[in-house]
Design a protein that fits this description.
Blueprint (H helix, E strand, L loop, with lengths): L2 H12 L3 H4 L7 H7 L7 E5 L7 H5 L4 E6 L2 H10 L4 E4 L11 E7 L8 H10 L1 E12 L10 H10 L8 H5 L3 E9 L4 E9 L11
Parallel strand pairs: 1-2, 1-4, 2-3, 4-5
Antiparallel strand pairs: 5-7, 6-7
């Protein structure tokens, strides 16, 4: 079974319990949304939006929101809560929106995507030249927590999560400015990318 099929099967069940359980271990959504620096006039895309846990936070700042997810089950849950938002079922690695957005966010989802490098590239293609991309996800524990990381990594792997992506390095291929900060002894990170590189760059060749 491919990673995509595993994830889709996984969320067929977890869509039913996601909202009730994820607050226990998916932290810092508020911080991530703050990093978008949203204005009422901004258009925003929530890439791999899941059941829409970011959306109430984004709606406080702007109403011009689109959201995409690969899982029909997760997306249907989000749709049932937010009728005013445009939802799209699609692949984060390939889906192109009709209009580029000023702000894009992706939380606790990139680590579930097998071809996560393509997902970063595609998010950059859906972003305005002066836009901001924010990624929140799991990371490698450090400091006093480092010795416990192998157990956490094992647990994440069971849930199809890759916590060891060199995200900062990959973002620098597409953006002039990249800031990445870890929290809770490396439990998770927030990366903020801006100053998108010109689309004529070699990284976009053959498109």
């Amino acid at each position: 079974m491919t990673q995509e099929k595993k994830v889709k099967t996984y969320y067929r069940f977890h869509s039913k319990i996601y909202d009730a359980t994820r607050w226990l271990f998916l932290f810092n959504r508020e911080k991530a949304v703050e990093k978008l620096n949203l204005k009422p006039s901004d258009s925003a895309i929530d890439f791999a939006c899941g059941t829409g846990l970011n959306l109430p936070l984004i709606l406080e700042k702007t109403k011009n929101i689109s959201a995409l997810d690969f899982s029909d089950d997760m997306l249907n849950k989000a749709k049932s809560k937010f009728s005013e938002i445009m939802f799209v079922q699609g692949d984060a690695c390939t889906y192109r929106f009709d209009k580029k957005a000023e702000k894009i966010i992706c939380t606790y989802s990139l680590s579930l995507i097998e071809n996560w490098r393509e997902a970063i590239k595609n998010m950059s293609r859906n972003l305005n030249e002066n836009g901001i991309l924010v990624i929140l996800d799991f990371y490698m524990w450090n400091g006093l927590m480092k010795n416990f990381y192998p157990v956490f990594k094992w647990w994440l792997k069971i849930h199809h999560v890759n916590s060891e992506m060199p995200v900062e390095e990959e973002l620098k291929k597409y953006f002039e400015n990249v800031e990445m900060k870890t929290f809770l002894s490396g439990y998770n990170f927030i990366a903020v990318a801006s100053g998108i590189k010109k689309l004529r760059s070699p990284i976009y060749e053959n498109e």
